[in-house]
C-alpha cells in the first residue's frame, strides 16, 4: 500500500477566496451567513444563505462564461489554486497519470433554473444552446481536466452531501493502490437559485432566520437549532503518492490516511447512528488508527435536529469514553452547508487545523442540548492544539456516508 | 444598407471578441476557431437577430459566407407567401379559404413566444 500526501489545495467558500483567507475567517469565528438582498429571494420563507464573495468576471471572459455555470466557475478557480500550490511540473506523462475525481450534488443548478424559467415562466422556446453542457453534473470536473490537459480518469460522484468526500476517498484508494501517482479531487456546489432554495425549503430542513442576528441562524449541536443553511463554494486537493511527492521535495499539507464509505440503507433522509458509526469505524480501520488517537473531528454537523443528535450518538458509539476528550466542531455554523462541496471544503479546514494547531469553533452554541453532549469547541477557536490525527465526516441524503482521516506531517516530507 | 453578412460579422465581433478585419465571407471557420459548438451558439444569436428559425441540424458550413447564405435562405423561407393547398377538393366551395397544408404551416414564420409575451428569454435573476 502506498502512502498518500496532500500536496496542493484550493478553496473558494463563504468567508474566503483562498485557503488562508477562508481558514482565518473560520478561526476568527466569523459567520458568512447573511440575508440575501436580491429581489427574487422575497419568495423564500427564510432569506438566508452563505454566499461566496466570488466575482466570476475577475477570472473569466464573457465568452467563457456562456459555457460555465457558477459551479464550474468555482471548480476551475479552486483547481487552479490547488495546482499552483502543488507546483507540479506538467508533462505528457504526468498529465496522462493524473485523474480528476469530483463531487457535486446539484451540478449546474442555475442553468437548470434558467432553462425552466425560459420555457415555463417566459413561455419561450429560446433555451440557451449550451444548457445541456453547462447543467450536466460532470461539467465542472470535465472543465478542470480540459483546462489542465489531464488525460487520466475524469469521474464525477453525486451522492448528495457526501459527493466530494466520496470523490476524494475514491481518488485516495486509487493512489494508495499504486494505480496512479497524482489526482485532483474535490467538489463544488452553487445551489443559491430560487428553484433549488425553494426545493430545499419544501423539505422542511432549512433553518429559520434568527430574528436577532441572521448570521447566527445555523446552530449545530445547540438545543435551539432549527435546520441547515445552504451555502456555495468549492475545494480541490492534490493527492500525490508519498514517494512521488518526496522525490520532488513537494510541500506537504498533510497525509490522507483513511477513508470509510458505507450506506445507511434505512431511510432516504433520516440519518442512522449505525450507518454513521460504521463509516467512521471503516475509516479508522483503513487508516490502521485506534480511535483513541483521534484528536479532532470536523463534524458533518448540519444544524438539523435529526443529524446532530444522531452524529453525537454515533461518535460516542465509535469512540466510547474517548469521545469526551475529542474536540468536535461544525464549521457549517459559519460557511453553511455546501452540499456536494462540503466534504472537500471541510477536509481543507481539517488539514489546516492540524497544521496550524488552531481548531475552528462551532458558532452559535449557546443553548446546550442534553442529546448533544460532546466538546464542540463552542463559539471560540481553540489555539495551540497539538493534534496529529483528525477525522472529517460527510453524511448524505440517500444514505451514503463518507469519512476521511488525515494526519499532520512536517511541511517537507 | 446593412447586409446579412454585416449583421453576422457584428455578432461575431460582439460574442467571440474577434477583430472585424479578420471576418470576411471567405474566412474559413477553422481559421477563426469557430468549432461546431461556436457555430451552434452563433446560429442561435442569428435566429434572434434576423427573426428566423433554423432547422434542427446546421448545414456543413465551410466559411462565414456559407453561414450568411444560410441565414438569407431562412429569411427567404420566412418571407415566402404561404403555398396554396395542393389539390383543393373538386367540390370545395370557392368562397371558403383554403385549408393550409401541413407543409405550408411549417414554412410560415413562427412568431417568437418571447416577443409575444414581451419577456426576455434567459433574463433570470441569479
Give a description of the structure.
- The complex is a heterodimer of chains A (413) and B (126).
- Chain A is α/β, with parallel strands linked by helices and 413 residues long.
- Chain A folds into 2 domains: 4-247, Peroxisomal Thiolase, Chain A, domain 1; 259-405, 3-Layer(aba) Sandwich (Peroxisomal Thiolase, Chain A, domain 1), CATH 3.40.47.
- In chain A, 34% of the residues lie in helices and 17% in strands.
- In chain A, helix 12 (305-319) links the parallel strand 9 and strand 10 (328-329).
- The longest helix of chain A has 17 residues, at 70-86.
- With 126 residues, chain B is mostly helical.
- Chain B has a single domain (4-82, 105-117), classed as Non-ribosomal Peptide Synthetase Peptidyl Carrier Protein, Chain A, CATH 1.10.1200.
- Chain B is 44% helix and 0% strand.
- The longest helix of chain B has 16 residues, at 64-79.
- The radius of gyration of chain B is 19 Å and the shape is elongated.
- Chain B starts with a helix and ends in a 9-residue tail after the last helix.
- The chains are: A alpha/beta (413), B mainly alpha (126).
Essential attributes:
heterodimer, A: 413 residues, alpha/beta, Peroxisomal Thiolase, Chain A, domain 1, 2 domains, ten-stranded mixed β-sheet, two-stranded antiparallel ribbon, 14 helices, 17% strand, globular, B: 126 residues, mainly alpha, Non-ribosomal Peptide Synthetase Peptidyl Carrier Protein, Chain A, 5 helices, 44% helix, disordered C terminus
Number of helices of chain A: 14
Q: Helical proportion of chain B?
A: 40-55%
What's the pLDDT, averaged over the residues of chain A?
Answer: 97
The CATH topology of the largest domain in chain A turns out to be Peroxisomal Thiolase, Chain A, domain 1
Amino acid at each position: 500500500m502506498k502512502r498518500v500526501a496532500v500536496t496542493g489545495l484550493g478553496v473558494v467558500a463563504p468567508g474566503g477566496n483562498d485557503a488562508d483567507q477562508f481558514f482565518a475567517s473560520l478561526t476568527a469565528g466569523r459567520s458568512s451567513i447573511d440575508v440575501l438582498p436580491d429581489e427574487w429571494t422575497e419568495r423564500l420563507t427564510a432569506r438566508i444563505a452563505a454566499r461566496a464573495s466570488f466575482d466570476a468576471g475577475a477570472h473569466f471572459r464573457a465568452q467563457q462564461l456562456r459555457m460555465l455555470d457558477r459551479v464550474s466557475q468555482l471548480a476551475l478557480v479552486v483547481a487552479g489554486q490547488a495546482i499552483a500550490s502543488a507546483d507540479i511540473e506538467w508533462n505528457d506523462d504526468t498529465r496522462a497519470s493524473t485523474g480528476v475525481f469530483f463531487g457535486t450534488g446539484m451540478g449546474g443548478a442555475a442553468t437548470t433554473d434558467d432553462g425552466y424559467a425560459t420555457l415555463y415562466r417566459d413561455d419561450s422556446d429560446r433555451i440557451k444552446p449550451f444548457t445541456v453542457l453547462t447543467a450536466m453534473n460532470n461539467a465542472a470536473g470535465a472543465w478542470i481536466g480540459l483546462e489542465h490537459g489531464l488525460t487520466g480518469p475524469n469521474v464525477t460522484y453525486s451522492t448528495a452531501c457526501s459527493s466530494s468526500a466520496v470523490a476524494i476517498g475514491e481518488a485516495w484508494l486509487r493512489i494508495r493502490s499504486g494505480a496512479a501517482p497524482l489526482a485532483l479531487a474535490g467538489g463544488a456546489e452553487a445551489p443559491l437559485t430560487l428553484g433549488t432554495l425553494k426545493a430545499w425549503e419544501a423539505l422542511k430542513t432549512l433553518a429559520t432566520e434568527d430574528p436577532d442576528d441572521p448570521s447566527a441562524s445555523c446552530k449545530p449541536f445547540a438545543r435551539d437549532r432549527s435546520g441547515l443553511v445552504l451555502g456555495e463554494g468549492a475545494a480541490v486537493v492534490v493527492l500525490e503518492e508519498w514517494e512521488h511527492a518526496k522525490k520532488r521535495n513537494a510541500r506537504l499539507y498533510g497525509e490522507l490516511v483513511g477513508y470509510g464509505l458505507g450506506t445507511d440503507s434505512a431511510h432516504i433522509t433520516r440519518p442512522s447512528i449505525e450507518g454513521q458509526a460504521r463509516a467512521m469505524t471503516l475509516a479508522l480501520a483503513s487508516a490502521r488508527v485506534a480511535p483513541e488517537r483521534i484528536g479532532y473531528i470536523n463534524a458533518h454537523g448540519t444544524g438539523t435536529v435529526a443529524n446532530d443528535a444522531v452524529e453525537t450518538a454515533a461518535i460516542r458509539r465509535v469512540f466510547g469514553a474517548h469521545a469526551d476528550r475529542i474536540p468536535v466542531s461544525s464549521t457549517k455554523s459559519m460557511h453553511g452547508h455546501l452540499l456536494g462541496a462540503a466534504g472537500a471544503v471541510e477536509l481543507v479546514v481539517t488539514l489546516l487545523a492540524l497544521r496550524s494547531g488552531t481548531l475552528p469553533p462551532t458558532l452559535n452554541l449557546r443553548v446546550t442540548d442534553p442529546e448533544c453532549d460532546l466538546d464542540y469547541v463552542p463559539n471560540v477557536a481553540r489555539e495551540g492544539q497539538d493534534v496529529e490525527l483528525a477525522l472529517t465526516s460527510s453524511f448524505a441524503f440517500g444514505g451514503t456516508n463518507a469519512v476521511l482521516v488525515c494526519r499532520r506531517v512536517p511541511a517537507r516530507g | 444598407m446593412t447586409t446579412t453578412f454585416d449583421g453576422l460579422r457584428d455578432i461575431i465581433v460582439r460574442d467571440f471578441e474577434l477583430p472585424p478585419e479578420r471576418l470576411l465571407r471567405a474566412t474559413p471557420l477553422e481559421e477563426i476557431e469557430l468549432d461546431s459548438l461556436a457555430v451552434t451558439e452563433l446560429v442561435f444569436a442569428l435566429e434572434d437577430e434576423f427573426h428566423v428559425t433554423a432547422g434542427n441540424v446546421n448545414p456543413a458550413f465551410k466559411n462565414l459566407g456559407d453561414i450568411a447564405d444560410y441565414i438569407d435562405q431562412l429569411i427567404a423561407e420566412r418571407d415566402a407567401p404561404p403555398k396554396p393547398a395542393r389539390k383543393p377538393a373538386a367540390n370545395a366551395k370557392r368562397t371558403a379559404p383554403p385549408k393550409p397544408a401541413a407543409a405550408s404551416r411549417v414554412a410560415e414564420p413562427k412568431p417568437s413566444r418571447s416577443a409575444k409575451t414581451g419577456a426576455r428569454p434567459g433574463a433570470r435573476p441569479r
